[in-house]
TrEMBL record:
PANTHER family: CONSERVED PROTEIN, GLUTAMATE--CYSTEINE LIGASE 2-RELATED. It holds the Pfam family GCS2. This is Glutamate--cysteine ligase GCS2. GO terms for molecular function: ligase activity, forming carbon-nitrogen bonds. Gene3D superfamilies: 3.30.590.20. It comes from the Bacteria.
Length: 494
C-alpha cells in the first residue's frame, strides 16, 4: 500500500500503485531477481553506513474502509466513489467494496494525535459527503457482518492490473490448488473453499506506521511483535464471518488463510507463509528481514523498473507481497533520502475515529515504554511465546491468558490495565506529547474500553445475543453509532 504520500515518491507497491502490465514471462522473473539481489546488496551497505534518516518517532496510519448501501449491505462502488472523492490520500483496495485512507506523516510530540484525529475526521467527512451523492455510505469495521461469501468473487475485484496479477500469481504459486478457509470458533466452525484470493477483501484494518532508525530499529521491531497480543485483543472488531461467531478478531486467521502460500518451515516446525507473524525476533539489524525476503520468499510480481537502484523499487515491491503482521518498510523522501518504518498491521478498522486514534496513541506509547527495558526483549521472552500470545489474544480477546516478560501468566486485560497503560502514559508525557491528549486517548478511551471489556467485538456479540442473528440490523445500528464519532465503550446495545 502506498505510504505517506506527501513526502514519498516513486513508491511501487502491490497494494498502492498500479503496475503497467498483468502478465509475466520467465525473463521477467529472472530480471527481477537480478535487480532484487543488486538492491539488497546496496541495502546492506546502507545498514552499515549512515545512509538512513536518523529521525525517529514520525507516525502515520492507513485505514481501510467499506462502502455500504442504504441497508448496510456491501456496495461495489469504489471506482465511482474514488473518482468523485478525487483525494490523493484516498485510494482503492482489493475489492470494489473497499477503499483506503492514508495519513500524512506526523512528527513526534505535541499535538500529534490530535492532528491525526483532525486529518482523519476531515477526510472521512469528505468521503461521507461524496458517498451520499452516489447512494452509498463509508464504514469502518474489521469484517463487514453483511458480506456474503458469494460476493467475494473476481466479478467484484477492483479494476486494476495489480490485483488480477496478484490473484493469478498467488494461485500459480499454489499450483492452482484452491484456498481452504477453516476457522474454528468456540461454538461454531467455518469451512469454505475459494478459487481466488477475494476472501482477503473481507478483512479491513488500521495499519500504524512508526519511523525508526538503524540503531533503534531492532528494539522497535521486536517491541511491535511483543505488543501484538495486547493490541489485537484491545482493538478486536471482527467476531463474525458469514453469520458465524468465530474468533474475537477473525480477521487474523481469515487473512492468513485467504492468501496462504506455504513457503518454508522454521526451526520449531512452524510453516511460514506469505501472511505471517514471522519466524523470529530481529537480532542485529532489520537487514535480516530483507535477506529473508530475498532467500526464502519466491517472487510474486516481477515488475521490472528502469530507475536507479537507490529507489529500492524491487526490494519494496517484493516486501509488499510478504504480509508480516509487523512489517519493516523502506521509504523515500522527495530528495531520495531513505528512512525505516515499522508497519504494525494488527488492529482492526474502527469502530470509530476516536477509537482509531486512541489505538495509535496506545501503540506508540507502549512502544516507547518498552524501550525503557534494559535487557533486550528477545532475551526476556521467547518468540514462540509471543507468537502463542498473539493467536490466543486474536481468538479470545481480552480474556486470553498470555505470558509476559516477568514470567507471569496473566489475562491481556490485566496486562494492559496494570502495566502497559501506566507505562504508555508516562512514556508519552516524557516524549512531550500534549498531556490533555494523553488523558483523552489513554484514560478516556483505552482504559474504559479494556476495563469494561467493551471492544467492537464485544459490542457486536452483545447485540446478536440480545437480538438474535439479525446481522443487517446489527450493522445498521453499528453504522448509526459510528457516525456519532463516539468511542465504542460508550455505545449502547438497544
Amino acid at each position: 500500500m502506498c505510504k505517506f504520500k506527501k513526502t514519498e515518491t516513486k513508491q511501487h507497491n502491490t497494494m498502492g500503485s498500479e503496475i503497467h502490465r498483468a502478465s509475466f514471462s520467465e525473463t521477467d522473473f529472472r530480471e527481477f531477481r537480478e535487480h532484487l539481489r543488486k538492491e539488497t546488496r546496496l541495502l546492506a551497505e546502507w545498514f552499515s553506513s549512515s545512509t538512513f534518516d536518523d529521525e525517529a518517532g514520525m507516525c502515520g496510519f492507513e485505514l481501510e474502509g467499506w462502502l455500504v448501501d442504504s441497508n448496510c449491505n456491501p456496495a461495489a462502488s469504489n471506482e465511482e466513489f474514488l473518482e468523485k472523492v478525487n483525494h490523493h490520500l484516498v485510494v482503492p483496495e482489493l475489492s470494489r467494496y473497499n477503499f483506503e485512507i492514508n495519513s500524512t506523516p506526523h512528527p513526534p510530540g505535541g499535538a500529534m494525535f490530535r492532528l491525526m484525529h483532525e486529518e482523519l475526521a476531515s477526510i472521512w467527512e469528505h468521503c461521507s459527503a461524496i458517498a451520499a451523492t452516489i447512494g452509498v455510505k463509508p464504514m469502518m469495521i474489521g469484517i463487514l457482518p453483511t458480506i456474503d461469501n458469494r460476493q467475494l468473487c473476481l466479478d467484484n475485484v477492483s479494476p486494476l492490473q495489480r490485483y488480477s496479477a496478484l490473484n493469478r500469481e498467488i494461485l500459480r504459486s499454489r499450483q492452482k490448488k484452491p484456498l481452504r478457509i477453516h476457522i474454528e470458533g468456540i461454538t461454531e466452525t467455518l469451512d469454505i473453499v475459494h478459487h481466488d484470493v477475494m476472501a482477503e477483501a473481507a478483512t479491513t484494518s488500521l495499519q500504524i506506521h512508526f519511523q525508526t532508525t538503524p540503531n533503534l530499529a531492532v528494539r522497535h521491531y521486536n517491541a511491535a511483535h511483543l505488543l501484538s497480543a495486547p493490541m489485537v485483543a484491545s482493538t478486536a472488531n471482527a467476531p463474525y464471518l458469514f453469520g458465524k461467531e468465530l474468533w474475537s478478531e477473525t480477521r487474523i486467521p481469515l487473512f492468513e488463510q485467504a492468501v496462504s502460500i506455504p513457503t518454508f518451515t522454521d526451526r520449531h516446525g512452524n510453516i511460514i507463509s506469505r501472511v505471517t507473524f514471522g519466524r523470529d525476533y530481529a537480532r542485529h539489524s532489520l537487514l535480516e528481514v530483507f535477506l529473508e525476503n530475498l532467500d526464502a520468499f519466491p517472487i510474486l510480481l516481477p515488475v521490472v523498473f528502469d530507475e536507479d537502484p537507490g529507489w529500492m523499487n524491487h526490494v519494496r515491491l517484493h516486501n509488499g507481497t510478504i504480509w508480516r503482521w509487523n512489517r519493516p518498510l523502506i521509504g523515500m523522501n522527495k530528495e531520495g533520502k531513505p528512512h525505516l518504518r515499522i508497519e504494525h498491521r494488527v488492529p482492526s478498522a474502527g469502530p470509530s475515529i476516536p477509537d482509531c486514534i486512541a489505538n495509535i496513541a496506545f501503540f506508540y506509547g507502549s512502544m516507547l515504554f518498552l524501550l525503557s527495558e534494559k535487557e533486550p526483549l528477545s532475551t526476556m521472552l521467547s518468540f514462540e511465546d509471543i507468537r502463542h500470545n498473539f493467536y490466543q489474544a486474536a481468538r479470545y480477546g481480552l480474556d486470553a491468558r498470555i505470558r509476559w516478560l516477568n514470567g507471569r501468566t496473566m489475562s491481556v486485560q490485566e496486562l494492559i490495565t496494570t502495566l502497559l497503560l501506566p507505562g504508555a502514559y508516562s512514556a508519552l508525557l516524557a516524549a512531550d506529547v500534549d498531556p490533555d491528549d494523553v488523558r483523552l486517548y489513554l484514560d478516556g478511551i483505552i482504559r474504559p474500553r479494556v476495563t469494561e471489556k467493551k471492544t467492537g467485538a464485544h459490542w457486536q456479540t452483545a447485540f446478536i445475543r440480545r437480538h438474535g442473528p439479525d446481522f443487517q440490523a446489527m450493522t445498521e445500528h453499528y453504522y448509526n453509532c459510528q457516525k456519532q464519532h463516539n468511542p465504542v465503550h460508550e455505545w449502547k446495545v438497544l
